Amino acid sequence: MMYAVVFTLIGFAIMELSGWFIHKYIMHGPLWSIHKTHHQPSKSFFELNDLFSLLFGSIAIGLILTGAENLDYRFWMGVGISIYGMLYFIIHDVLVHRRLKWFNRPQNKYLLGIFKAHQDHHATNKKNDAVSFGLFVVPKKYFKR
Ligand SMILES: [Zn+2]
Ligand SMILES: [Zn+2]
C-alpha cells in the first residue's frame, strides 16, 4: 500500500518538475513553433500544443501497461502521471483557459494563486520573456492578496 502511494507521488512530482523544465527550456525553446499555438488565440478547439498532452499521456499508458503484470513501480508512476494529467487538464484547460465551460472558477485561495501565476505566464505571447512555468508549484508571491 505504502509502495503504491510513494510511487504514485513520485510520478506526480516528476511531472511537475520535468513539466517545468520542458515548458521553460524546450517548449519556450526549440519546440516553440508547437507551443506558441497555446500562446496565441486559437481558431479551433484543438491546438498543436495538445501534442504534448498526447506525449505525456502515452508515457503514462506505456508505464501502466509495462507495470501492470506485477503492479510494480512503473504501474504506480503511470498512475501518478495520469492523476497529474487529469488535474492539469481540469485546472489549466477547464478552469484557467475555459476550453470547456464545465464549472466556474472556485475562489479557493490556493487555486486563485495558481490561476494568477498561470495568467502571468500568458502575459506575453513571446518565446523569451515568459515567467512562471510550473502549474502546481509557483512562487509564494502569487498567494498574497
Ligand atoms: Zn508557455
Ligand atoms: Zn496556459
Automatic annotation (TrEMBL):
InterPro entries: BETA-OHASE-like (IPR045019), Fatty_acid_hydroxylase (IPR006694)
UniProt keywords, alphabetically: Carotenoid biosynthesis, Membrane, Oxidoreductase, Transmembrane, Transmembrane helix
Pfam name, any one: FA_hydroxylase
GO molecular function, one term: iron ion binding
Ranges for domain Fatty acid hydroxylase: 9-135
Record's protein name: Beta-carotene 3-hydroxylase
Family under the similarity heading: Belongs to the sterol desaturase family.
Any GO BP: xanthophyll biosynthetic process
Naturally occurring in which organism (per UniProt): Cecembia rubra
Stretches that traverse the bilayer: 6-27, 48-67, 73-91
